[in-house]
Amino acid sequence: MRIVVLVSGSGSNLQALLDSAGSSELDVQITAVGSDVPGCGGLQRAEAAGVPTFSVPLERGASAERRARWNRELCAEVRRHNPQVLVTSGFMKILSEEFLTRLGVPVINTHPALLPSFPGAHGVRDALAHGVKITGCTVHQVDAGVDTGPILAQAAVEVRDDDDAASLHERIKVQERRLLVATLDALAGGRIHLREELSQECGEALP
Predict the structure, then answer these.
(1) What is the pLDDT of residue 205?
(2) N or C: which end of the chain has fewer CB within 10 A?
(3) pLDDT tens across 56-79, in order?
(4) Where is the active site (predicted)?
(5) Is 27 exposed, middle or buried (0-12, 13-18, 19+ CB in 10 A)?
(6) CATH number of the domain within which 71 lies
């Protein structure tokens, strides 16, 4: 199964995929890694592994018109690498409905909370603020909402009394890496399936 991975930061989840891809553990080919942050750690990890990279930056405070153009530019770059699935992991931008329409292949995302609880960019912080005793991570299929797509897999992580956002997030990341590899392996092996109707709702991939 061919995948493209989008990242914004250090790429620790990406490293788990790079370490596992093409082995008996994970029958996946990473055709490219892209980012909205030129030179980020995730791109450096990919380059060190010999995987093609690209970056499509978006400036802070960009207008709606600029964001729409950015979505089209990013989509064109992703499509150029011919993935069967797009993986967003630690990618800190919201992909537009037009992006999903133009892309024409399923997108899966990792999220550091047990969805549908605590969606959005601050899942770890929000879980702590609400005083939950169990949180975790989710791999889900992306739809036009924010962290609202069908859940593919989840793993639980206990919240300790002395946790802060950093310590809790580090333990979540350990499970997130394991869960992402296992989910992609199950997808590649046909043991779990993506919802085709999400792609069909978007229609045919646009030129």
Answers:
(1) 40
(2) C
(3) 999 999 999 999 999 999 999 999
(4) 111
(5) middle
(6) 3.40.50.170
